[in-house]
Amino acid sequence: MSNFRPQPRPGVLSISPYVPGKSGAPGVAKVFKLSSNESPLGPSPKAIAAYRGVGEHLEDYPDGAATRLREAIGRVYGLDPARIVCGAGSDDLLNLIARAYLADGDEAIHTTHGFLVYPIATLGTGAKPVVAAEKNLTTDVDAILAAVTPRTKVVFLANPNNPTGTYIPYDEVKRLHRGLRPDILLVLDAAYAEYVRRNDYATGLELVAENDNVVMCRTFSKIHALAALRLGWMVGPAHVVDAVNRIRGPFNVNAPAIEAGIAAVEDAEHIERSRQHNERWLPWLTEEIGKLGLTVTPSVANFILIHFPGTDGKTATAADAFLTARGLVLRSVAGYGLPNALRMSIGTEEANRLLVAALGEFMGATA
Ligand SMILES: *Cc1c(COP(=O)(O)O)cnc(C)c1O
Questions:
Q1: Residue 146 CA to ligand 1 centre (angstroms)
Q2: Which one of 24, 122, 194, 221 is at 20 to 30 Å from 274 when CA atoms are compared?
Q3: Could you tell me the residue range of the domain that residue 116 belongs to?
Q4: What is the distance between the alpha carbons of residues 205 and 193, in angstroms, rounded to a whole number?
């Protein structure tokens, strides 16, 4: 019977659909959404104003080339706008890269707890996701290099990674690149780059500029707090930009996103405020949650991974239910192979303090 109806291409039905972080807590008056790494400070007020301004002209198609947005990004990052492509979130760009560079029988590598969009985008093309083991929940360059085969076409690397919050130093990224054949595309996903305060970290823009096989994806969903608008950008060599531009939707970025994005990327003060908020609360949460006897993976991003003992009722599932009942909505990461951990986005001061108090209660409660 199933042969007599349309069949999706091989790979599509192997995809485990992406499960977004929960956004609600039924019956709770005040909800703190700490499940998708959105910024607790919200977007720049200038971005909100720019977004509202577009409401007067919803009949017009947006600029399909997002020219003014690419120019603004180019000014802020010192990049040639011609090397930038904007997308409906970095999801869009990651999928476009997969579609442009992967086909049946090809392989794309990501790490054990790499962002779930990588295997989804890979399987959608008929190619095979290949998992490179991590060490201590951190990217292991040697494992990635060992996973390369003649069929490898793409390597996806989130640095820092989500959901682990860990990173590898720039020297390691360069060593990875040196070890890859020149026909393998290295995709650096720097969604959380703005938060990282480590001397040995770099996003890799220089690697993109100097090579024919490196691209970088960035997002407006995290520090810029425009997740609702779906906006991201990538920068790469001219030939990759050309390929991606050929297959992207002609109007893949909407007009409100373009205008809000320009205002957001230019609001250095707001970005700095968001960074400082994170710099204050990331170490505080790591320490306070550690004091409760829970392990927190050291994070350089705007979220932490909290590990539960998994015994005596102290499971991630039980903690999730306990916290949700108090309006504290964290992210289950069972889909990432971390059934006894929860990921928490750094929240407002109020949310962070409530979370530590509630977790203390949870850990103290007898099973
Ligand atoms: C959140 C996130 C993104 C951003 O995705 P958008 O589609 O731009 O919202 C990209 N990569 C990683 C690793 C992320 O965690």
A1: 26
A2: 24
A3: 45-266
A4: 11
pLDDT confidence of residue 23: 79
Distance 194 CA to ligand 1 centre (A): 13
Does the residue 15 lie in any domain? no
Q: What is the pTM of this model?
A: 0.96
Note the residue count of the chain: 367
Instruction: Indicate which atom in ligand 1 lies nearest the CA of residue 232.
Output: 8
32 Cα–ligand 1 center, Å: 20
> Does ligand 1 have an atom closer than 6 angstroms to the CB of 155?
no
Q: Is there an atom of ligand 1 within 6 Å of 221 CB?
A: yes
- Residue with CA nearest ligand 1 atom 14: 191
Contact 228, 47 (CB under 8 A): no
pLDDT tens for residues 209-228? 999 999 999 999 999 999 99
- State the Cα–Cα distance between residues 328 and 357, nearest whole angstrom: 11
Where residue 224 sits, what CATH number does that domain have? Answer: 3.40.640.10
21 CB within 6 A, ligand 1: no
Q: How confident is the model at residue 367, as a pLDDT?
A: 47
Return d(Cα 222, Cα 224) in angstroms, integer.
5
Shared domain check, 63 and 38: no
pLDDT of residue 1: 53
Whole-number pLDDT of residue 19: 82
Measured in Å, residue 151 CA sits from the centre of ligand 1 at: 26
Ranges assigned E (strand) in the chain: 32-33, 84-87, 107-111, 128-132, 152-158, 185-189, 214-219, 232-235, 295-297, 303-307, 328-329, 331-332, 341-345
User: From the CB of 89, is ligand 1 less than 6 Å away?
Assistant: yes
What are the φ and ψ backbone dihedral angles of 233, each rounded to 5 degrees?
Answer: -145, 155
Residue spans of the chain under pLDDT 50: 367
For the chain, helix (H) and strand (E) counts, in that order, are 12, 13
> Are 137 and 206 found together in one domain?
yes
Closest C-alpha among 300, 295, 294, 285 to residue 354: 285
Choosing from 35, 157, 221, 300 the residue with most ligand 1 atoms within 8 A of its CB, the one to mutate for a pocket test is: 221
Same-domain status, 116 and 244: yes
Same structural domain, 159 and 255 = yes
pLDDT at residue number 21: 79
